[in-house]
User: Fold this.
Amino acid sequence: YFYYECTDFTIMTPAVVTEPPTAGVVVPNSFVLHTLPLFLEGPIRHLKTLSTEDARRDVYQRTHDSVLYDTALQMYTVSASLASIGPDVGRMVAFSPGWLENESVWLHMSYKFYLELLRGGLCEEFFMEISTGLVPFMDPSVYGRSPLEATSFIVSSAFPDSKLHGQGFLARLSGSTAEFLSMWSLMTMGPAPFSLSHTGELQLSFKPVIPGWMFPEDGKLSFTFLGAVSVTLSNPNRVDSWKAQPVSGELVYTDGTVFTSTDGTFGKAQALDVRALKVQSILIQY
Assistant:
């Protein structure tokens, strides 16, 4: 983030004098660029612009190694210390460090960061980060509320009272929940379950991003697709799904008819049937 200070300007004389006088016109002649302390939104937006996995991994690593990473909580704060800036940049400096918009763990923003890691193909890094940064994996006795409930912010290690470090405040079900659902969608279905084949035909295929440790002992993980279709991923060896390829797929229609695919990809007719909710369940075998 940056801001610009006008260091030289000219006050223009109105061409016509009016009563009451019109507002004056000021023409800036020069500015000085100032760099604000680090904000997590910077690397988040940077990640969106990068075209290679190596470039995204470099930005991730530099963010992880920066002051934005709260090493005690193993989470990311919304900003670095704001002690060096004044109130003219906004209300955030009015809060104590580690609280609300001043150097706290702003869940909506940290969830955005995790989502960009997942979108960018940094699967290993994503699952490492969410193991400490996603609410379901937090210790409820520290978080201070149900792990089913997101909050506006978590008190970071910058806050003067260490007894509150890691505790969530202000229940919130908007931004962080939206990012969480986006993560869930990418993890279970992949970015585009419906796509076009190399011949331009509609097809349906799932590209889940789920680590082996998230699969139950029987290797079967299920989710609901399109609000009505039960999809089961069968991964008996419990390998990371992004490292495995489907060996077969099966559709069970609402009338009991079964259609089998040899590679887990379904063609136009079957994709349209799934979209029309004529299919009750899908099994993808790895």
Summary: The chain has three domains: 2-35, 41-186, 190-285. Helices lie at 41-49, 53-64, 107-119, 123-133, 140-143, 175-188, 268-275. The CA atoms of residues 188 and 208 lie 5 Å apart.
